[in-house]
Amino acid sequence: MDVLAPVAVTGPVLLACLVLVAGRWLPRPVIDAVALAGAVGLAVCGALLVHATLAGDAVTWLGGWTPPPGAHPVGIALVVDPAAGGLVVLVGVLAAGALLFSWRYFASVEARFHGLVLLFSAGMTGFVLAGDLFTMLVFFELMGAVAYALAAYKIEEPRSLQGGLTFGVVNSLGAYLALCGIGVLYARTGQLSLAYVGETLAGARPDGPAVVGIVLVLVGWLVKAAAVPFHFWLADAHAVAPTPVCVLFSGVMAPLGVYGVVRVSAVAAPEVPALRGVLVVVGAVTAVLGAVLCVVQRNLKRLLAYSTIAHIGLFLVGATDGGARAWLVYLAGHAGVKAALFLLVGGLLARFGSVDEIDLHGAGRTGDPADRVAAALYVVAALALAGLPPFGAGLGKAALEESVPGALVPVVVGTSVVTAAAVLRAGLRVFYGVGPRPERRVDLERTSGEGEERETTGRLRHATATMLAAPALLLAAAAVVGVLPLIGRVGALAGERLADGGAYRAAVLGTGAVAGAVPEPVSWHPPGVVTGVLTTAAAVVLALLVLVSGRVPARRRRPVRRAIGPVVLGLERLHSGHVGDYVAWLLFGAAVIGIAVAAPTLG
Prior knowledge:
Elements: H1 4-22, H2 28-52, E1 58-61, E2 77-80, H3 82-101, H4 111-129, H5 133-151, H6 158-189, H7 194-201, H8 208-225, H9 232-240, H10 243-268, H11 273-295, H12 300-320, H13 324-352, H14 369-386, H15 392-403, H16 409-432, H17 465-483, H18 485-499, H19 501-509, H20 526-548, H21 554-574, H22 579-602
Antiparallel strand pairs: 1-2
């Protein structure tokens, strides 16, 4: 264990340096193989970390120095529990899928792409394993800096630069708020270690500095999670980032923000009761707004990005209000499905030079066997997003519905149905030509996806083997999450241990953790299977209704458009693409959350 955790962080960094230095002399297949081996190795390392921590959390003090019990630590600790190890596995699997897809995808790709992906993986791994607030921030910034470069990788395109700039400004401001919060907590407690901060604040009513510090740190992590109203940057970044990069952005980077919120609030803020209610509200609003915006997108990458925002809301709801044992399983299942969908959209961009749902109407009906395989994979992935058994997303959703309060169940069900229906609608329209070609709306052209530059050399005659193998393997992995009992047991244990701040503090402080009760595994039950089938059927019906609604005479559709049109148009205009607007919303959201948490806590 003393070796595994540091290797998980430093291994990708060393490989990235090797690839960047030697890449100019190595042939492309060697670079691909080295980078892919590094990602697979990271996933294996994460699996070993999970196995090693099933009985209890493990702490590795870097430099071989371990503070005596009760002493103030001055070193850097890496803290591993099943949740952290599982997320390392997820980082490695998604990085491997993205790199495999990229083998024959890009028109021209230098070794810097592979190096950036490995550095990005190292940043995410370090953030997950960091045991003190400042080290979390360091890896948060590493993750962010590399992500900005990946988002703007197509640097010759003005839109890529604009999207990368927006991403960088908003997330850097979030990091600055987190840094301010860490400074306030250090001034209040004299500690940077997350466990020691929690121990100092535990057992007493929080005072003003403690509340301000905690809120600022959590706002920084919520920006990375793209929770409302900090979500504006995510769709813009996805729209311009290379498709393989979107796999990492949606599949694991944004969910890591939720992980950070849960980790800090459980360990350092157990005595702030108002915090949980505020986070539940933020999660519910994020889920609903993300689902609504998902429905109205034409750009397939934006559509999937808003679906991610909606699911981030569900993860936040589950992690903070009774769904601790379910949300990590849901996250893993969603990651595989969403990654597969993004890669299939990347295949459309390579084949047809567009991600515009209207322009691509019926484009997939070529009769080419590869296109038929891509169409089938897309439809299956869309149904899995709705909760189709036996996929992991459906298992996590069913467990979440069983765990959260009854008032939140409609949010979970409605969000999964609406987002899956939007994704399925696009797939049926593009791959099968279902329904008439929709009319264009000039007021929504900014989100059309027109003018998207191919990331491949010219137009591919058909999808390559690796471009189909990567989404197929990721979709298979999402199914394994739902059918392998071991994952359900470990996922439930990981979620419960992540929410147990006391056990985390005891492991780091060396006081000895009291083993908690073993949680019920996340597994399929008849009600969950029935609900999954029903939500899948509802998504199919809703998608077909939208597709055939184009055949309804315009005069009959006009009242509906008059009723919902202004709302949709207003929401689209709020997402203006202007970074100044997004910064204003970020500051407004931080102020509202701060007041909502501080008023009942300090009043």
